[in-house]
Protein: Short-chain dehydrogenase
Organism: Mycolicibacterium agri
Amino acid sequence: MSKTVVIGASSGLGRCIGVGLGQRGHQVAMLARRRERIEKAAKEAGPEAVAVECDVTDEASVRSAIGAAANALGGIDNLVYTPAIGSVMRLVDTDAQTWSRVFATNVTGAAVATAAAVPHLSASAGKVVYLSSDAGTFSPPWPGLAAYGVSKAALERLVQAWRAEHPDIAFTNLIVGECAGGEGDSATGFSSDWDRELATEFYPQWISRGCMPGQLMPVEDLIEVVHTILGTDSATSMPVVVARGAPSRPSPA
């Protein structure tokens, strides 16, 4: 049974992935800030799943949570990092606090979580999957989502850096187009606080620039992509996987 830690598992795509992996036979540790939600998600994931509180913007919290997850699972074979935030905002209006907040979750949190897990992943010749976005370098820049897009481009470079320093671990940058998400607690809240008027203004530009895939990816397909990546032989490198539309299996970029 694969021992997998999913970070950002209390809601949205992270919750869907954590529950889905647990139901596919992974022994899962589900990490997030909201204790009640992750406990509920862990119950859905199966009897082997555990819930651990974790704030990805707090290094001490991350390191403590990774340690607790490793103890609960008896090691870590895989790490899946899903947290991401971003607001629709004109670049000229994006202040330092916004840049800092976005990078703390989307990039720094991923770096710190990986660092905490590396000793366990090296011991197991494990894998790390980061949920990225085609708003990074995969598509033209999205007007109005500059901070988010730049952070995802930085995440791509971070994955490359980890791969260069730790060739014993398989790092995958999973570039996800628009995904349908789940229902209830599993529904994505990524755009819930967007300025709707501003998003409506930028939407025609996203379409004309070819930023949007035009078809939502079913969340079950995304779960299957992650499950497939984690199930590949450790010697098989999948540095970049692109999941757009509704693929049934990942296709290395």
In short: Residues 65 and 71 are 10 Å apart (CA to CA). Helices lie at 12-23, 35-45, 59-73, 96-124, 146-165, 196-208, 219-231.
